[in-house]
Amino acid sequence: MAFSRYEERSVFRNSRQLYRELFDERGVNFIRHYVTPEFRYPTPEEFTELDITYRSWRVGDRFWKIAEKNYGRPELWWVIAWFNKKPTEANVQIGEQILIPKPIERTLSMLGL
Questions:
Q1: Other Cβ atoms closer than 10 A to 81
Q2: pLDDT at res. 82
Q3: Same domain? 56 vs 97
Q4: pTM of the prediction?
Q5: How far apart, in whole angstroms, are the C-alpha atoms of residue 107 and residue 95?
Q6: Are residues 56 and 13 in the same domain?
Q7: Which of 69, 72, 105, 99 is nearest to 86 (CA)?
Q8: One digit per residue, pLDDT tens: the chain, 113 residues?
Q9: Structural domain span for residue 91
């Protein structure tokens, strides 16, 4: 069961003037963008349906490494980042507790995937 944050996402042609210089550099009239999904955070009731593992962030940690260890799928790094409201590793401080939601199937279901 591979879930990508790009699965079943709409793609649109972006020809906005804002990107004109980029279009000219690439010799194109538009670029394709994924529509940004909007995930809602679990409700308190949904939160109780998950098994949460707590981990203290350490030097060298990466979301993809933690996803690989906990889900067997490094490409699910974004689930841990989203769940902790940390868009990148740069937003996590050494020693900070991060939450790893399990099971991954239930977590993804809450996202509508």
A1: 20
A2: 93
A3: yes
A4: 0.72
A5: 25
A6: no
A7: 99
A8: 445 666 667 888 888 888 888 888 989 888 887 777 778 888 889 889 999 999 999 999 999 999 999 999 999 999 999 999 999 999 999 999 999 999 999 998 888 77
A9: 44-110
Name the residue among 71, 58, 74 with its Cα closest to residue 100.
Answer: 71
Counted domains in the chain: 2
Six token digits for residue 6: 């790009």
Beta bridge pairs of residue 54: 99
Here the tokens at position 33 are 């963008």
Strands annotated E in the chain: 11-14, 31-34, 51-56, 97-102
Q: Are 11 and 32 in contact (CB under 8 A)?
A: yes
| The pair of three-digit structure tokens given for residue 57, joined into one six-digit string | 């962030």
Q: Which two tokens mark 73?
A: 């799928």
If DSSP codes are grouped into helix, strand and coil, which group holds residue 55? strand
Query: CB–CB of 34/16 below 8 Å?
Result: no
The tokens describing 41, both together, are 């955070």
